[in-house]
């Protein structure tokens, strides 16, 4: 018993720090690695994304139990959610809010019968890069021409209450609401805010110097 007391006395600051950090990461903020390119060009494989876990709910640490709803997603926000339909954690951009009507026609989004504005950045034989204006939130999208165009359009749908329509910025290479359906509100885990750091899988996992502590939202 004396040895345990001495061990606690010697290491209590470290133990308390680990405990507080665990609670912080479990309920307040965390970062996640991104293994796929479904959100390119905004998010690249190897990015470590900072997620505000209190953006939408205050939860009991280490559980999915919500104590209090702290906010609702806005169009254009990038959310992390545990998809039951996909059976894995996903990160996508919110396109449609509850009650919205949304359609996609030849890569162009229509929300509540209004077509979004697009400005082409580059267009070559491999891909088209453009800036999409999502009612004031401007972000980049990517269309790979060699990929199947099956995800290039869908008929008008109405987003149900307490659900969201999400899509990846890499429009032809993203399994999102076009594949798994609407995202229930209770699957949301937080709002992705920035890139903490990034490693290049194709360059010996060396860090990408231009992606340290960069915001995911254009200013």
Q: What's the mean pLDDT score?
A: 88
Q: What is the ordering of alpha helices and beta strands?
A: HEEEEEEEEEEEEEEHEEEE
Query: What structural class is derived from the secondary structure elements?
Result: mainly beta
Shape: globular
- DSSP strand content: 35-45%
What is the straight-line distance between the termini? Answer: 58 Å
Largest sheet: 9 strands, antiparallel
Helix content: 10-25%
Concise synopsis of the structure shown:
The protein is mainly beta. It contains two helices and 18 strands.
Lay out the secondary structure.
Blueprint: H1 2-27, E1 29-33, E2 47-52, E3 57-59, E4 66-69, E5 78-83, E6 88-96, E7 101-105, E8 108-111, E9 114-115, E10 117-123, E11 127-134, E12 137-144, E13 154-158, E14 163-167, H2 177-180, E15 183-184, E16 188-200, E17 206-207, E18 214-215
Antiparallel strand pairs: 1-2, 2-16, 3-4, 5-6, 5-16, 6-14, 7-8, 7-13, 8-9, 10-11, 11-12, 14-15, 16-17, 16-18
Can you describe what's shown?
This protein has 219 residues and is mostly beta strands. The chain is built from 2 helices and 18 strands. The chain has helices at residues 2-27, 177-180; strands at residues 29-33, 47-52, 57-59, 66-69, 78-83, 88-96, 101-105, 108-111, 114-115, 117-123, 127-134, 137-144, 154-158, 163-167, 183-184, 188-200, 206-207, 214-215. Strands 1, 2, 5, 6, 14, 15, 16, 17 and 18 form a 9-stranded antiparallel sheet that branches. Strands 9-8-7-13 form a 4-stranded antiparallel sheet, with no helix packed on it. It is globular, with a radius of gyration of 20 Å. Residues 14-29 have low confidence and may be disordered.
